[in-house]
Amino acid sequence: MVGNYRTGLGRSDVLQVNPFNGVVAVGHSGGTVSIWKPTSAAPLVKMLCHRGPVTALAFHPNGHLMATAGMERKIKLWDLRKFEVLQTLPGHAKTLDFSQKGLLATSTGSFVQILGDLSGSQNYSRYMGHSMAKGYQIQKAVFRPYEDVLGIGHSMGWSSILIPGSGEPNFDSWVANPFETSKQRREKEVRSLLDKLPPETIMLDPTKIGAVRPTRKKEKRTKQEREDDMETAVAAAKSLPFKKKTKGRNKPTKKVKKRQEGIEKAKRPFLEQQMKEEELSKKKRKRISDENPLPKSLQRFARNKAAT
User: Fold this and answer.
1) 1-10, 24-33, 111-120, 199-208: range with highest mean pLDDT
2) How far is it, in rounded angstroms, from Cα 55 to Cα 95?
3) Are strands 74-79 and 84-90 parallel, antiparallel or unpaired?
4) Average confidence (pLDDT) over 89-102
5) Element (H or E) spanning 138, and its range?
6) CB of 31 within 8 A of CB of 70?
7) Tell me, what's the pLDDT at 293?
8) What percentage of the chain reaches a pLDDT higher than 90?
9) Strands 65-70 and 74-79
10) What is d(CA 69, CA 76) in angstroms, rounded to the nearest whole number?
């Protein structure tokens, strides 16, 4: 077990995994949807999606679109990049599922409705509808990958219907091979276990994995801070103890001279840094003055200003 956490948000009847980044979304009885990763004791995101209990939840294959259904008979489509509602549709849904090509199946009672983004503008409308025999209560509707088939589980068994354009026609055999043999299936299982990412790497934005953190600019220290650091270094050099030497080599003048050398050595890096900063400021002022030359009658004022 990787983690065991209490949500504190009421009963949870709906749970889905986002295929894009591996986070888990949980729908609660208070209308809230919380998003979790395995190594976090607190939810990454809490969204108040509905006024009543959440009855169904589904993710688009691209991972950026989420569909939720509530008891107040509304289906909402959410943009997970901005966490805002894209579209609100009327209707109750007990189960939701996205196909590989983006069709959305909703079902309640004995009726299945397919919604499609026909215009390509994330504006879903009715695409198809199917009614089961009277008295059949649909529990789950799931699209079959790489085929135009919708599987429907109901109170009297299992059925399937054809939904044109729902499956991905061009599959990548390195990602998923519908015609794989038993040997290929065993090798794929071993390979997936070897390539599995640890739970710590699951996050909302998976593009951060393998990225380099940008270097931050060093904050420029104030003059007072530099002076305080120099005084601390000088005090440390003054309090440095000396070894007792043989007679004739332990004169007070030599001690004073050596202590003075230690103080100068402690001051040197601070003075060099100050000189570098002064040179850079002079070059910057000179560059600005070269870019914006003043009239001859005003140049003497510019020289006086630079000198101060």
Assistant:
1) 24-33
2) 7
3) antiparallel
4) 92
5) strand 138-144
6) yes
7) 67
8) 32
9) antiparallel
10) 6
- pLDDT tens-digit readout, 36-90: 988 888 899 999 999 989 999 999 998 889 999 999 999 999 999 888 999 999 9
Both structure tokens of 302: 């510019």
User: For residue 60, what are its two tokens?
Assistant: 């688009």
Q: What is the pLDDT of residue 98?
A: 94
Cα 28 to chain center, whole Å?
23
**Token pair belonging to 201:** 């790497």
Which CA distances in Å does 258 have to 40, 42, 58, 148, 296?
Answer: 58, 60, 77, 89, 54
Report yes or no: 207 and 47 within 8 Å, Cβ to Cβ: no
Neighbours of 201 (CB within 10 A): 15
What's the token pair of residue 101?
Answer: 């090509």
- 277-293 burial: b if 16+ Cβ within 10 Å, else e: eeeeeeeeeeeeeeeee
- The 10 Å CB-count burial string (b at 16+, else e) for 8-40 is ebeeeebebebebbbbbbbbbeebbbbbbbeee
204 within 8 A of 23, measured Cβ to Cβ: yes
Residue located via tokens 């997970």? 80
